[in-house]
Amino acid sequence: MIRFDEVTKVYRGNARPALNAVDLEILAGEFVFLVGASGSGKSSFLRLVLKEERPTSGQIHVLGQDLGRISSRKVPYFRRNLGVVFQDFRLLPNKTVFDNVAFTLQVIGKSKGFIHEAVPDALATVGLDGKGGRFPHELSGGEQQRVAIARAVVNKPSILLADEPTGNLDPATSDGIMTLLQRINANGTTVVMATHDVGIVDRLQRRVVELVGGRIVRDERGGSYTQAVPLVREQSFGPAEVTP
Amino acid sequence: MRLGLVLSEVGQGLRRNLSMVVSVVLVTFISLTFVGTAILLQSQITQMKTYWFDRAQVAVYFCTDFTTAGSCDQQAATDDQIAAVEAQLQSATLAPFIDAYYFEDQELAFQNFQDQFAGNAIASLVTPELMTEAFWVNLVDPEQSQILSDALAGLAGVESVVDQRSYLDQIFAILNASSLTAVGIAALMLVAAALLIATTIRLSAFSRRRELGIMRLVGASNRFIQTPFVLEGVVAALLGSLLAGGAVIAIVHFFVQGYLTQTLPGTSFVTVNDALIVAPVLLVAGGLLAAIASNVAISRYLRV
Ligand SMILES: Nc1ncnc2c1ncn2[C@@H]1O[C@H](COP(=O)(O)OP(=O)(O)O)[C@@H](O)[C@H]1O
Ligand SMILES: [Mg+2]
């Protein structure tokens, strides 16, 4: 589904790589947490998957396509298979909830008929039935993020990328969003979520990929935010002092 | 592609940037008016050149009883002298350069003079004896008048050999200079127009950067994203081009046909028909300029 082979990303004017020789494979249907401190390269990883950035070296395959071989004219069509959600929602303030979600379909040329079926469907999925006529500023943060998720999944993407989707939300609201993301994942969408929300990662017990300074230092199935064993690279073998 | 959506985006863009759009309209209007004027001036010059150069001849003037110039000594050229010149014109050396020639005797010259100055007081003052006799020579290549001048100027009874194109050359030099000035101004104005269009589109894109970001994210095709902006620039420029086309037609109708033709009868001027050909050219030029400028301006937002 997503495969990184020795991917390094160095931004111009920044000597230290944002991602350093990253090797990673994410399979269809997985739910993966990308964890790590600010600046560890989580967003860079997601942007590379979206082909918003090019890797400095290495190869990226997404949905069976070599991203290095997709011409820039084809990139939009490639992106239609991906949904994206951000910490700051990125809704259009002058459009209603319905229109925000419909916009996605309009700009990729879907018919009116299709839009009028798909948008209410997506709004129902995220639990916003009957709120299609509201404007973003009339909604709570959690509701706005649900609109953003509805927009991301309305075209039934195979992969949903979420960059700290709960970063602006309180814990209770975050739980609601996580339940929603799990439901979307259960329906077959691969979900990759960057976060540094310890509670959420610990509770869900999903695959955890940890980045430190652009390197993968841990890739654990059913893991928690903090690792069970100390870092091999930074500490010599010794008693496991770190609490699970 | 959904036409309705695109058009409503274009409308929004135009309204949102009204003052910039107005300046685009005005700048394209003025620049294309210069372009149109330059084109018409060029065609006027070409038209006049063809007209005059076809008629322009080399005159071989003969001495009269009153002339002292050249080899003349107040002695009219004799028939023998005239025959000698004609023999030269027919000789193997000169004949290949000559298309046609005719002799204008005093009677004919007098007639031509009377025709040219009909109604003028001077016409009643001249008599046939005052007129200068001449050979009027049409050259195969009008550039080669020097050959004729070299061969004939020194002959007895010849006052002078005059290439009439030398008079015309001065006039055309002035006309050409003004036409080049118009072209130069037009070029500068077109650069200004292109930059202004690019800036306007960039502003428009900036004010819609949120939508643009989302469009790119959800996979709107580049063409879909580009089209409203390009159309926005093109619509504004086409408005300006329409005004320029109208202005050019008005200039020809009121100034050239209404004023110049009355003032300088006998000269053929560009007509409204010529302007009607130029107007669509301006329209296409304005549209193309805007399409290219907005395309370049917006492509920055489409880079992946
Ligand atoms: N557009 C950019 N230009 C230059 N450096 C960048 C850019 N984006 C990110 N970086 C750098 O790359 C590193 C990783 O950033 P990022 O991927 O945003 O990490 P995270 O999302 O984990 O906080 C950081 O050092 C950051 O400063
Ligand atoms: Mg980030």
TrEMBL record, chain A:
Protein localization: Cell membrane
Superkingdom, taxonomy of origin: Bacteria
Domain ABC transporter: 2-238
GO terms, biological process: cell division
Cited Pfam families: ABC_tran (PF00005)
Presence of the UniProt keyword Nucleotide-binding in the record: yes
Recorded GO MF terms: ATP binding; ATP hydrolysis activity; transmembrane transporter activity
Gene Ontology CC: plasma membrane
Topology within the bilayer: Peripheral membrane protein
InterPro entries: AAA+_ATPase (IPR003593), ABC_transporter-like_ATP-bd (IPR003439), ABC_transporter-like_CS (IPR017871), ABC_transpr_LolD-like (IPR015854), Cell_div_FtsE (IPR005286), P-loop_NTPase (IPR027417)
Keywords associated with the record: ATP-binding, Cell cycle, Cell division, Cell membrane, Membrane, Nucleotide-binding
Keyword Nucleotide-binding assigned: yes
UniProt xrefs under PANTHER family: CELL DIVISION ATP-BINDING PROTEIN FTSE (PTHR24220:SF470), IMPORT ATP-BINDING PROTEIN (PTHR24220)
Function: Part of the ABC transporter FtsEX involved in cellular division. Has ATPase activity.
Subunit structure as annotated in this protein's UniProt entry: Homodimer. Forms a membrane-associated complex with FtsX.
Similarity comment: family membership: Belongs to the ABC transporter superfamily.
Name under which the protein is recorded: Cell division ATP-binding protein FtsE
UniProt source species: Microcella alkaliphila
Lineage: Bacteria, Bacillati, Actinomycetota, Actinomycetes, Micrococcales
UniProtKB/TrEMBL annotation, chain B:
Gene Ontology terms describing biological process: cell division
Keyword Ribosomal protein: no
Annotated TM spans: 21-41, 180-201, 229-256, 276-298
Domain FtsX extracellular residue range list: 57-161
Subcellular location, record wording: Cell membrane
Gene3D superfamilies: 3.30.70.3040
Ranges where the ABC3 transporter permease C-terminal domain occurs: 185-298
A cellular component term, taken from the record's GO annotations: plasma membrane
Keywords, comma-separated and alphabetical: Cell cycle, Cell division, Cell membrane, Membrane, Transmembrane, Transmembrane helix
Membrane topology: Multi-pass membrane protein
Family: Belongs to the ABC-4 integral membrane protein family. FtsX subfamily.
Self-association and partners: Forms a membrane-associated complex with FtsE.
NCBIfam families: FtsX_actino
Functional note: Part of the ABC transporter FtsEX involved in cellular division.
Name by which UniProt lists this protein: Cell division protein FtsX
Organism annotation: Microcella alkaliphila
